[in-house]
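Case study 2.
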Amino acid sequence: MTSPTETSSKSALDYMPAELPGPRARALVERDARVMAPMGRVYPLVIERALGCEVWDVDGNRFLDMNAGIAVLAAGHSHPRLVRVAQEQVTRFTHMAGTDFYNEPMVKAAEKLVAGMPGGAGWQVFFGNSGTEAVEASIKLARYATGRQNIIAFFSAFHGRSYGSLSLTASKPRQRRGFFPLLPGTFHAFYANPHRPPLDSAPEHVAETCLSFIEKTLFTTTCPPDEVAAIIVEPIQGEGGYVVPAPGFLKGLRELCDRHGILLIADEVQSGIGRTGKMWAFEHEGIVPDIVASAKGLGGGMPIGAMIAREELARQWQPGSHGNTYGGNGLSCAVTHEVLSLVEEELMANAATVGAHLMARLDALRERFPQISVVRGRGLMLGVEFVDPATGQPAGALADAIMEESFRKGLLVLTCGASTIRFCPPLVLSKEQADEAVERFALAIEACL
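Prediction:
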């Protein structure tokens, strides 16, 4: 297992950051405020360098990284194989518009992606620069190929922030506030959350209830099925709280789509590329979508997104139907090919093994802290939900406080959903580093109670 590191992880008490933010960090935060538009940073981390699962700020403080740039750095920070490939490619060429010309790194990356899809053939790729662009391409292809206009997404979903993808996003009101009107023809249904079942459903019937809402309510009132181009779903909801759907939900969606001639789009932007212990999270449910949106871990830190579609759909696009100046960028594609090779060789298996270890360690914290209601997820995509023990209701303020205190304890985590802290570290994470993360996390929880 390749796990580049500079600092051994013996105990969470071996090292704690000094004053945060330090003087250099404070100065850079002030400079940033003068020239950068507001983006809602969550705590004052100012990175100076990083390696593997470790990050150092500009004042020399060391942190253990459990968010990987929001599930982006699949191979960790500055993985030597990615550095070598990037250095070699940049001496050849960096860019030649992939929608107008050809280049081998783009072809090789697409070949590698297709080989990792169900069946290993019969798929085609369109490269963009981000997850939201992959979703936009998916929406456009679904409408183009079916001749239908409506798209169904799910409450608590996150699909991006450009207008088409934002119209499908339903995670937090602030993401949509001030941007109406959004894309017409978008509808939302209920995600089969087994921990917080919608529609007053019993947990054991939540999948059936949510599927029934689509077919017996949505289709019979406001959204005729013969006008639906696609249903887009996250196999594990990301920003919605790292929620694994109830068993049978994704299979039920696949069957529903098949009955009505609707395309199924899997948004694997956060859950794909080995993060759950399989290349794609939908593989855990034994289904095959028609279109897959990928990004984040795909580039290992380089900006890239990909729409991967069944060949019979993708070939319907006529030249000029869609395009992208930077899509197929030689540098990004060269690194992407190496990321996918690493995932196949070792990272996917490590995510499964170390992910199971980390989940067990996090779940054990429930005995000490009744504020933790559930630890959920797959592989190295894990969420720890905090509640008020007296009411069982989400404790968002507590989760935010623990996130900030974790930073002060040398641990980088982020919240998601109403009151969940996510663990989505680089897939090079070792069991020793997982243990250190849990120790630091426990110290942060204790400090906030």
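Confidence is low (pLDDT under 50) at residues 1-9.
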